[in-house]
Amino acid sequence: MRKKKVCVVVNSRANYGRIKSFLSAVQEHPDLELLLIVGASAMLYRFGSVIDIIQRDGFEPVSTVYSIVEGETPSTMAKSTGLGILELATQFENLKPDMVLTVADRFETLATAVAASYMNIPLAHTQGGELTGSIDDSVRHAITKLAHVHFPATEQAGKLLEQMGENPASIFVTGCPAMDLAAEACRDNCDNLFQKYGGTGKQLDWDKPFLVVLQHPVTTEYEEAFCQTRETLEAVRRLNMQTAWFWPNVDAGSDAVAKVLRMFIANNGDAPFHFYRNFSPEDYVRLINRCACIVGNSSSGIREGAFLGTPCVNIGSRQRQRKRAENVRDVDHDADAIYESIRLQLEHGRYAPNTLYGDGHAGIKMAEILAERRIEIKKQFYRNSGQS
Known about the structure:
Elements: E1 4-10, H1 13-17, H2 20-28, E2 32-39, H3 50-56, E3 63-65, H4 74-95, E4 99-103, H5 107-118, E5 123-126, H6 136-146, E6 149-151, H7 155-163, H8 178-187, E7 200-201, E8 211-214, H9 225-239, E9 243-246, H10 254-267, E10 273-276, H11 281-290, E11 293-296, H12 303-308, E12 312-315, E13 328-331, H13 335-348, H14 362-372
Parallel strand pairs: 1-2, 1-4, 2-3, 4-5, 5-6, 8-9, 8-11, 9-10, 11-12, 12-13
Antiparallel strand pairs: 7-10
Helix pairs in contact: 2-14, 4-5, 5-6, 8-11, 9-10, 9-13
């Protein structure tokens, strides 16, 4: 019997971390063939050269796509989405996959979904049905209506997909594949990661407490990105604690975030900060497993942070509606409030691990479902007998 060709498009460092265990499961499955496309910011050096990490991990892309329009504004995000659709349509036509899997809620992810669905290719979607904030909700829900198979991370997300008219027979609550890496991190006694990666700033001591900060621009608030980042910098500087700070993603406003970080580096050479472009997915999870607190607006503090029991200070509106465990304290873009929230989290210490976003076996579950099931591309709004 011919293997089913499963095409996965990896567009960013976050995408890769949230799908890596699934890539391994497909690669090892006797009835599936992995077709990996790498594109968008995953191809770019300034966002961490994710493609290099992918290849070192033993995944060889069948093709690469350059689709990012420089500028980091709402206009360039829209243009990048359009360019992604053009490029991916050509790739899908050449590769002829039996199905395509797309991840989460980014504009690059929407390009994958549009291209696949218009070409009558069955589309699987991970992390649908979640609520966060900003434009991400709109993008995520739009992809849901294009997708034919859904792999939500939580029971709540699965129920929301049903409320959106998706057939329950197409919904499989598998958990998030990022928790598979988190489960591995819990078992590891890793070496000094600060010596493994380059970056810039003060050398950090692996054996002393440290913070991890990752703050992205908020698309619907991109003009405020400079001031918002400055508030976080001021709060963390006031703590005078070792800090591993990661550069932002490619969303509108990231140039402003990068600018305020560069200004801080130039004027605060003695601050115990070190700035990094990227870690491998496993090492990033190991890092937040070891840190005293994760700060910013990345979903990793809420998702992986819950699984690991890592204290998290979540800033602003980017993750406002996302389901969270007790490890998260929410705060606005205010230096005093951020400082106090971090201080309270440090005082509290570790939380009990929580499997809200999965039990660490999502990748294998997803691969088995795609191998076993025939996917129907014709969709209609599902209304069960209990709905009026």
